[in-house]
Each structure stands twice: as C-alpha cells, then as structure tokens.
Amino acid sequence: MAAVKELIRVEADGSISFGDYELASKTKLKDFNHQGDLYKVKTFKEITKLERNDLFVYESVPGTAVQNFQVSADGVEFQVSGPEDAQITLGMEEDTEYLTEVDGHESGRIKTGRGGKLVLSVELGGKENVSVKAVKAQA
Q1: Which contiguous run of DSSP H or E holds residue 47?
Q2: Main-chain dihedrals φ then ψ at residue 99, nearest 5 degrees
Q3: How many CB atoms within 10 Å of residue 14?
Q4: Of 50, 58, 115, 132, which one has the fewest beta carbons inside 10 Å?
C-alpha cells in the first residue's frame, strides 16, 4: 500500500485514508472537513496521528499509512501498512470491552479504561493492507 501523499483524503465509500510513513520530517494538515467533522493529521516515519474535532482518534508508532478508516457506533475498521511492525492506539469509548481482529485473525478482547484508549500491536513487516477491526463485545 502506498503512503497517502495528500496526507488525508476521502474514499469513494465515504471512509478516509491518511498517513505517509515515507516522510523524513513531521508534516501536518489541519481543518480537513469530512461529514461535518474537522480532522487533523500529523505524519512522518516516526509517528502517524489523527484527531477529529480536537479529540484523539488514532496513533501509530512508527508512522503508518491507513486506508478506508471507518468508525461506526459499534467500533472501527481499517487497513494499515508500514515498513515495520507498529503499535497502534485507538480512541474508543471509555470502560468498554472490544473484540479485536488483526489480519483476519481474532486477537482477543481488550477493555478500555477511563481514557478510552485501545492499544494493539500489528505485525506489518512491509505487508500491504493488514486489516484491523475492533467492535464492541456483546455482554
């Protein structure tokens, strides 16, 4: 998967794609309007970060490229790529348990704390389009 050279863009299905891990220095774009929300992206080889309406949404260390990022009432799903394995942190609902899936395989249940952050390790190693999904677990 190629890096997103526009830093952030809207896809035909209404999802967004963002991040350019090929950049040597931090680059950012703010006030990107999509469906009434304002997005801000910061990205380069060391980190990729996305905020919506000044609230944390996504962060990866090192930087990644994210395709077809979609948020629903039940969770989030997207495709990610990068030159090496990454730690991804997602801004989710507080004190909620999520079922996580990475590259088509269940990776377990993760419960968010008061900050609502969900942390995943994703093996990328140059693979293209590793799928990531986190949905609310049913009680």
Answers
A1: strand 47-52
A2: -90, 130
A3: 10
A4: 115
Interatomic CA distance for residues 95 and 15, integer angstroms: 26
Closest CA to 131 of 71, 72, 66, 73: 66
The mean pLDDT values, 10 residues at a time, for the chain of 139 residues are 84 96 95 96 97 97 96 96 95 96 93 94 86 91
CATH label, 8-136, candidates 2.60.220, 3.30.360, 1.10.20, 3.30.950? 2.60.220
Going by C-alpha positions, the residue among 80, 87, 126 that lies closest to residue 103 is: 80
Structure tokens, 14: 């209404």
Question: What distances in angstroms separate CA 89 from CA 12, 28, 33, 75, 76, one per listed residue?
Answer: 26, 19, 23, 13, 12
CA distance 127 to 77: 17
94/116 Cα distance (integer angstroms): 4
Write the single-letter amino acid at 119: V
| CA separation for the pair 118, 28 (Å, rounded) | 23
- CB-based contact 81:39 (threshold 8 Å): no
